[in-house]
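Hello,

Our lab assistant flagged a job as stuck in the queue for most of the afternoon. It eventually completed. Since we weren't sure the result was trustworthy after the delay, we are filing this so someone can double-check. Below is the sequence as submitted and the structure that was eventually returned. Let us know if re-running is recommended.
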Amino acid sequence: MRDLKYVFSFLKPFRREFLAAVFFVMAETAFELIIPLFMADIIDQGIPSRDIPYILELGVKMGVLALLSLTTGLLYARFAARAAMGYGAAVREAEFSKIQSYSFSNLDHFSTSSLITRMTTDITVMQNAITGGLRPMVRGPFMLVMGIVLAFIMNRKLALVFLICTPFLGLCLALIVRKVAPMYGKQQSCMDHLNRVVQENITAIRAIKAFVRGEREEERFGEANETLADTSRTTFHYAVLNLPAFQLTMYTSVVLILWFGGNFIQTGSMQVGELTGFLSYVMQIVNSLMMISNVFLMLTRSLASAHRICQVFQETPALSSPEHPTGTIRDGSIEFDHVSFKYHHKAKEYTMRDVNLHIPAGASVGIIGGTGSSKSTLVQLIPRLYDVTEGAVRVGGSDVRDCSLLQLRDQVAIVLQKNVLFSGTIRENLHWGNPEASDEELWEACRMACADEFVSSFPGGLDTLLEEGGQNLSGGQKQRLCSARTLLKNPKVLILDDSTSAVDTATEAKIRQALSSLTRTTKLIIAQRVTSVMHADQIIILEDGRVHAVGTHESLLASDPVYREIYDSQMKGGMGNGAN
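-- returned structure --
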């Protein structure tokens, strides 16, 4: 219930609409409850005495009450919808904002499909709890209390039937809720899995077609879809058991009331109109109990969704800016002081162990190593995408943990290994690097990244529209645009994480030559090709999360067998293959 309380706290800005909806549904219920009293008077007094004016008068009053009930019902729907839609937007915005505060390690705790489901389906469930649950939640108890009071006023003996039926209904509801509650959480997990399958299929549709795996992926989707359908079917199979239970109770109550009521009419202690009005209250009371049971089932499902939403809010960001940052980025010098790192604090093995490095400001540094040697991990510690487990990383003489994250990441720019472009124009994507950049600055960044060659060939130039993820560009073009976007930040430290792997060697040489003009910027270049780093001021070789060797191309070639083996396999091996 704490989860429900927290999630519904976002309803506070819309409490006026919410309270108005509550008021109108109570008014609607009150108008409906008065109608049976007039109906009983018409049957018991108007019809026996054939008093047409009296019948017409009460009929008009019943019509007015019905019209007022309809009006208040419509007003309830209006205010409930405004409260629910505003509430859903507020939760969705807060949840999205929370996700933006996550570090990479926080995002490792949730799958992408799960976060999407939590921001869409789960929030929709909570909205439905307001639009579909507020009415029965208010109307049910109010109608139940008022109906029982009016039924006791009308005939106390017959009203005792409810004291027998209510415990039975309560027992049925408790058993159903107990069975169904855990099933709703499982149902949402199945929805996560289905979304994950759909996301992977749409994202990798080209690979699926290339490998002719369409039929297998259809089977995979069918399995996930059928699992969700089976889980939903089982859940609702138990959830709808409340309907036959309540119908059994309702018709049993009607039969008992007709039996005893008929006897009362025969003895003269009750009139026909009174019994008719009493039966109307019976129906309303039983319907109110049905509403209350549906509310419990809806709250049970909402509780599962509220718990999943709260998990997003309760996740504590692993990284945050210090409240009073003391560090300043004076230059682009970088120092790793006995740095060790593991992705999860419970992991037994360190990904990186005891790394000591000093990189002077303005230097050009190449980083090479085998797959899994922690090259990307090393550079991701510099802009504090992850925090070190032991030791310290300093940029410009300041520990990155003492610096403002905004200032640090403005001064340390990184082109990630996975290129990310957004739907929109090339200009809009480049403005991520500098929103105030002029067209001249945009073209200059494109020239340095050798992106001007293809951008200028497009009819729209900088205003060319990019599809989602830049799918209308080649891999090399995406890499060059991402590099241009990063150069616009004019950072003190520039990190290129294998950002020229899809670029030909001639274009890579042009980019390297352009970057050499950035004498005040420290450049870290992760690459698989020796030609990409051999001209760097120093080269760092990583092996199994440790620094194996540091030196220039010439010194490493002369003294380090690992570097010499890499060089020979790429340079001499390449020439040998070419000769054959």
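-- support follow-up --
The delay was a queue issue, not a problem with the job. The result is valid. Confidence is low (pLDDT under 50) at residues 574-580. The two ends are 73 Å apart (CA to CA).
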